[in-house]
Design a protein that fits this description.
This protein has 2 helices and 5 strands; from the N terminus they run ββααβββ. The protein starts with about 20 loop residues before the first strand and ends with a strand. The radius of gyration is 19 Å and the shape is globular. The protein has helices spanning about 40-50, 80-95, and strands at about 20-25, 30-35, 100-110, 115-120, 125-130. It has a single domain (about 20-130), classed as Nuclear Transport Factor 2, Chain: A (Roll), CATH 3.10.450.40. It is α+β, with helices and mostly antiparallel strands. The strands form 2 sheets. The chain has a 3-stranded antiparallel sheet with strand order 3-4-5, with helices on one face. Strands 1-2 form a two-stranded antiparallel sheet. Strand 4 (about 115-120) and strand 5 form a beta hairpin. Pfam families: Sheath_initiator (PF10934). It comes from Pelosinus baikalensis. This is DUF2634 domain-containing protein. InterPro entries: Sheath_initiator.
C-alpha cells in the first residue's frame, strides 16, 4: 500500500484565446453603444486603462489603471516625467494577456498636459497610440 495517493493530472494540450467582446465606449460623448471585439476592443482597453486613475475606483482591481494623472502640475522635470510616464503606461498595459510589448515612446510634457505616442504589440497586430493623456 502506497503512502501517497495515485492522482492523475490532466494535460492541457491547447490554449484557446478567449474573445475580447465588450461594449463600445465613445470617449468624446461618454456614451456606450454597440459591441466591439478584436483589435477595436484592444485599442479601447489601452485608452481606457491609461485614462482610468489607478487605486481611485473600487470597481477595479489595483492592477487596473494608470497613475499618470497624479504627476500633473507637480513641477517635476521633463526628464523625470518622460521616464515615469513610460513606466506607468507600460505597467498599465503589459499585464493584459493580449499585449506582448509596449515601446517606441515619444513623451512631450506641455504645462498641465502630457502628449504621448507609443507602439503596442498585441495579438491583433501592432497598434500605434498618440494623443494627450
Amino acid at each position: 500500500m502506497a503512502l501517497t495517493p495515485d492522482i492523475t493530472v490532466p494535460v492541457i494540450t491547447s490554449l484557446t484565446i478567449q474573445p475580447s467582446k465588450t461594449y463600445a465606449l465613445d470617449f468624446d460623448t461618454g456614451k456606450i453603444g454597440g459591441m466591439i471585439d478584436g483589435r477595436k476592443a484592444i485599442e479601447q482597453f489601452i485608452r481606457k486603462a491609461i485614462f482610468t486613475i489607478r487605486f481611485n475606483h473600487s470597481i477595479y482591481t489595483d492592477a487596473y489603471g494608470c497613475e499618470v494623472r497624479n504627476l500633473m502640475g507637480k513641477g517635476f522635470s521633463n526628464e523625470f516625467l518622460r521616464s515615469e510616464v513610460k513606466r506607468m503606461i507600460t505597467e498599465a498595459l503589459i499585464y493584459d494577456s493580449r499585449i506582448s510589448k509596449v515601446y517606441d515612446f515619444d513623451i512631450k510634457p506641455n504645462g498641465d498636459e502630457i502628449f504621448a505616442g507609443f507602439t503596442v504589440d498585441t495579438i491583433a497586430g501592432i497598434i500605434a497610440i498618440e494623443g494627450a493623456i
